[in-house]
Specification:
Blueprint: E1 8-13, H1 17-28, E2 33-35, E3 41-44, E4 49-54, H2 59-64, E5 70-74, H3 75-84, E6 91-95, E7 101-108, E8 123-126, H4 129-138, E9 145-148, H5 156-159, E10 164-169, H6 173-177, E11 180-189, E12 191-195, H7 201-222
Parallel strand pairs: 1-4, 1-5, 8-9, 8-10
Antiparallel strand pairs: 2-3, 3-4, 5-12, 6-12, 7-10, 7-11
Helix pairs in contact: 3-4
The protein binds phosphoribosyl ATP and zinc ion.
Zinc ion (ZN) binds at residues 55-57.
Length: 223
């Protein structure tokens, strides 16, 4: 029976910036995502794939744990998970080239910024403590304080919560409106196809087929 044949479970963002690009890519691959009654699952008929619709932040853990076999997630979210997790994480199957953005440290426009040493003794608000910490360490800054925030970082300096922020920048408009400027880029992000560690042969083959279609779709797009 059909129910016995294995299907690949792919975790994608349900709604948001990444979701739009992800559904576009699947469509260009000739894959129609058929939404059923469930708000959590959708189905692809052209390939044996079930789509799990979730918050982007949950994708690395779902894939690392094997609850999903694969996922599409921003490099920023994947890398932050990798730097802050205990135990084995998901692995990168491919870089997809869309949803590009930068993770930047930003300071007030009036500040003179000459390099990472600026952050010595400063407070930096972010929801990326792992990526920020590792950049500070690589840059030799030992006494900066990381203030964990889950949104609206750009107002932290005005509120006196922090001296600087570390957040995703795309056009730079958000920083500009809040009187901030990019000091340094600490990570360049694009969407990644990630996979559970130790996929069995059947699922690895399905993932390979999906990856092949994605490569084809992305190549014809850039041709
Ligand atoms: O609900 P859920 O948790 O799933 O979504 P989310 O709100 O956490 O994420 P979402 O949909 O905003 O972003 C998903 C992914 O898109 C991110 O993890 C990045 O990989 C990528 N991406 C690309 C961005 C941006 N561009 C972006 N501009 N993510 C966030 N932003 C935000 C940024 O945080 C800042 O507030 O946009 C603002 C800056 O944009 P500019 O254009 O003003 O510079
Ligand atoms: Zn999120």
């Amino acid at each position: 029976k059909e129910t016995d044949s294995p299907r690949l479970r792919l975790a994608v963002q349900k709604k948001g910036r990444l979701a739009d690009d992800t559904f576009d890519l699947l469509a260009k691959c000739g894959l129609k995502v058929r939404h059923g009654r469930s708000r959590l699952f959708a189905r692809i008929d052209e390939l044996p794939i079930d789509v799990l619709l979730v918050r982007d932040d949950d994708i690395p853990e779902l894939v690392a744990s094997g609850a999903a076999d694969a996922g599409i997630v921003g490099g920023n979210v994947f890398e932050e998970d990798r730097l802050t997790r205990d135990g084995e994480g998901a692995v990168i199957a491919d870089a997809l080239g869309f949803s590009r953005c930068r993770l930047c440290v930003a300071v007030a426009k009036g500040e003179a910024y000459a390099g990472p040493a600026y952050f010595s003794g400063k407070k930096v608000a972010t929801s990326y403590p792992g990526l920020l910490q590792s950049w500070l360490e690589e840059s030799g800054v030992k006494d900066a304080q990381i203030v964990l925030m889950h949104g609206a970082h750009e107002i932290a300096p005005r509120l006196g919560l922090a001296d600087a922020i570390c957040d995703i920048v795309s056009t730079g408009a958000t920083l500009d409106t809040n009187g901030l400027k990019v000091a340094d880029t600490i990570y360049r992000s694009e969407a990644l196809l990630i996979a559970a560690p130790g996929l069995d042969v059947a699922k690895a083959e399905m993932l390979g087929a999906l990856k092949g279609r994605m490569r084809g779709a992305l190549a014809s797009q850039h041709a």
